[in-house]
Amino acid sequence: MTGPQKAVAIIALAVIAVGWFNWRMWRRFRAAKAERAGWSEADFDAMVGDNGVSASVAALTRELVAPYYGGGVVPHPDDDFARFLLIDEEEVADLVAAAWERLGLAMPMPADPVELPPMKDVGDLASHLQSVAPTATPASTHS
Description:
This protein is 55% helix and 0% strand. The chain has five helices and no strands. It is an all-alpha fold. It has two domains: 1-37; 39-132, Non-ribosomal Peptide Synthetase Peptidyl Carrier Protein, Chain A (Orthogonal Bundle), CATH 1.10.1200. Helix 2 packs across helix 3 (55-65) and helix 3 packs across helix 5.
């Protein structure tokens, strides 16, 4: 095989691999959209709310993970980062860093997957963000 033939073969394999990856993701999100026909943002908020996550943190979590979903697919707390969204630990750490910034907090250290608690799915991310979110102080009473 000559040099140009090798280059064409490598490029063809790369195109096939990218096409296969995109087809798999498209199928996965199409199936999720069909399965979640009645699933809404309010359902997501209620489900993570059952785990003590506030509505504002639930909304922040949805906004952070939205770019990883196809149009019209609402996140589910059980969506696995590695298996469903194909997000690695580094990307989860980036999501945490972005959340800290949006919450107006200074991270005590750079977001490092080793230092962060294990986050397997979207629900774990919401719970972690709730644990670091500033809490509202009760209104003071005048005596």
